[in-house]
Each structure stands twice: as structure tokens, then as C-alpha cells.
Design a protein that fits this description.
Blueprint (H helix, E strand, L loop, with lengths): L20 H23 L9 H8 L6 H18 L12 H10 L2 H14 L4 E8 L2 E8 L10 E7 L6 H4 L3 H12 L2 H8 L1
Antiparallel strand pairs: 1-2, 1-3
Helix pairs in contact: 1-3, 2-3, 5-7
Protein name: Superoxide dismutase
Family: Belongs to the iron/manganese superoxide dismutase family.
Catalytic activity: 2 superoxide + 2 H(+) = H2O2 + O2
Length: about 200
Amino acid sequence: MSILLPDLPYAKDALAPYISSNTFDFHHGKHHKTYVDNANKLLAETDLVNESLESIILKTAGDAARVGIFNNVAQVWNHSFYWQCMQPNGGGPATGAIAAKIQSTWGSFEKFAEEFKNAGMTQFGSGWAWLVLEKDQLKIVKTANADTPIAHGLKPLLTVDVWEHAYYLDYQNRRADYLNTFVEKLINWNFVNFLLG
């Protein structure tokens, strides 16, 4: 069972001008595709070849001998999740059940947004900022490189990719502008609420 590159859940120009089709050509069409191709090559001769992405991540996390498998499979998973976290005409204050949960956890959406963006800004180098559930509690966490909350028993609800290839073509080195735009214009709160259940 080979890992497939998922289609974007929207046209590649649907998030313009916030994320350009040029960025998607590279980020989805080249970076994400390379992780898929590498994962399939690395898995081909292993006992993990028929496992789900989540199962492979859990079975290879922390295993130095299988770090290549973990890095590529986790990046396939992280990117597939990230595309779902955005939508045209998205962003702004949370809606639905997640809005009340954010309010009870942080006191206001503005405080949540500040801390979420801060996690993205303070992730040194490449990585991700996440909104996750730990048991029934919302938390903001960050992971480096390919690491993912599912390797740590956390349930991801939302992520923003802060690898430079996620934003450099559109924002150059202005990570803060990218993060502000993600929160204000792109978050798919319907997806977050779906995961919240």
C-alpha cells in the first residue's frame, strides 16, 4: 500500500493573495511530494509498508535506526493536516464549539491568538505550532522539524507550518506577517470543530 500525495482541498489559487499558487506549486507540488516519494522508498522493504501513517509514526518515533522513515512519514502527515487547517474566507475569531473552549482556556480569543502566534514565532528554525487536546484540555505546543503531536499522545486540532518553504515566496523573512495572516484570514474553524467532535 503506497502513500499517496493528497490533493489540496481547494484550488491552488484559492488562498491568494495570502498564500500564492506559486507557493503551493513548491510547497505541495515539490516539498510534500518529495516526502511522499521518500517515505514510499524507505518503507518499501520494511514490515511497516502496509501500516497507516499514524501507526508508522508511533512505531518509529524515537527510533534512531528509523529516523528517516519517521521524518518523511511525519512530514507527509503534518502537511496533509496543514492543508485542511486553511480555507478561503477563513480566519478571524473562532466559531462553534471551539470558540467556547478557547474562551474557557485562555479567557479570550485574542489571548489565544497571541499565544498561538508566539509559538510560531519562537519555534527556532523549522517546525510547527499546534493547537492540541491533551485529554480534554486545550494546549498550544510547538514541534521542531518533522516532529508531530501524535508521537506524544496529543490530538492535533490546528497547525501552522513555520518551515521557511511555507511562507518565504510570499513573505520572505516576515514570519510574523505570515502568522498574523494565517490567524486573521486562513484558519478553517469548521475543520477544527469537526476534529473537536
